[in-house]
Amino acid sequence: MTRATGRGAGSTRPGLVWALPAAVFFGMFALTPLLLVAVLSFTSWDGIGDPHFNGLDNWTALFHDPVMLQSVWTTLLLTALGVLTQTPVSILIGVWAAGKQRNRAVLSAIYFVPLLLSATAVSVVWRAVLDPNFGVPAELTWLFGDGNLLGTKSGAVGVLTFVGVWQFTPLHALIYQGGARAIPQVLYQAAAVDGAGRVRQFLHITLPQLRNTIITSTILMVVGGLTTFDTVLILTQGGPGTDTTVTSYYMYQKAFKSFDFGTGSAIALVLVVVATLISLALVRLSRYDRMRGTAEGL
User: Fold this and answer.
1) Using CA atoms, how far apart are residues 157 and 79, in angstroms rounded to an integer?
2) Can you give the pLDDT of all 298 residues of the chain as single tens digits?
3) Nearest-angstrom CA–CA distance, 55 and 35
């Protein structure tokens, strides 16, 4: 099931038949539901009975809905904050975990515990910890004031960002750990001979060599940030008011609380398009699609 590609006498690649199972799976569980959502976005349906075609009514109402526009900006804000906070912390921890420090394996295992927890469990735990009546803020009033961190927009956004860092940084640190271990040690040895210290080695060797990893991790962060739902549902429920109503949560409100599945489908389609466009823009701007090297940073 292989064929030559003309790039060498022994150069072969798998035939298209090997991709058939994945293509069928992707078509059944990704493309087909997406197509159905696109069709529903042009209908009026409350979840009972048959959908009724209503043309562009859902889309017209959606683009004149102030809550929808606000939810898009809130989603982009939380996504940007997630990338800006998680990336540096993940790189530092990942590079450290790739070393040979004493007790490194034990400390890494402890730090990666959040990876074993679901987003729902993490949100429930932090909601209890940050409870203004019985949680940590109630004991540290000199630091948190009245303790109601989720009662203001800045406090709610800060909590969502912090919880995201706590939960997802271990995943990206693990990605960076693998990337750091793939860097040839001869580069560091040559730099040490030239008198470069650890900081200069990190800035001029580690970071450039982790370029591919940084792009991959950033795309994962962006897609994850754009589809955040569980944390908002449990911690803030879109509040205070609609200050933390992200697009995915607004879709849930429209479809499963207001039983307006047509508008909910339109919101879902907007979210898919935005996430796809941002991901493609990151790939193009970083020239990730033009990289041909098999080693990091080449």
Assistant:
1) 11
2) 444 444 444 556 667 888 889 899 999 998 999 999 999 999 999 988 899 999 999 999 998 999 999 999 999 999 999 999 999 999 999 999 888 877 777 888 888 888 888 889 999 999 999 998 888 888 888 888 788 889 899 999 999 999 999 999 999 999 999 999 999 999 999 999 999 999 999 999 999 999 989 989 998 999 899 999 999 999 999 999 999 999 999 999 999 999 999 999 999 999 999 888 988 888 888 776 565 554 544 4
3) 16
Inter-residue contact 251 to 264 (CB < 8 Å): yes
> Tokens standing for 201?
């080695």
Residue 90 has, within 13 A of its CA and on its CB side, a CA count of 29
**What DSSP assignment string belongs to 123-141?**
HHHHHHHT-TTTSHHHH-H
Nearest Cα to 237, choosing from 127, 134, 154? 127
- Residue reference for tokens 């729902």: 120
Residues 6+ away with beta carbon under 8 Å from 288: 212, 215, 282
Region at 287 (left for phi over 0; alpha for psi -120 to 50; beta for the rest): left
The CA distance from 232 to 124, in Å, is 11
pTM of this structure:
0.86
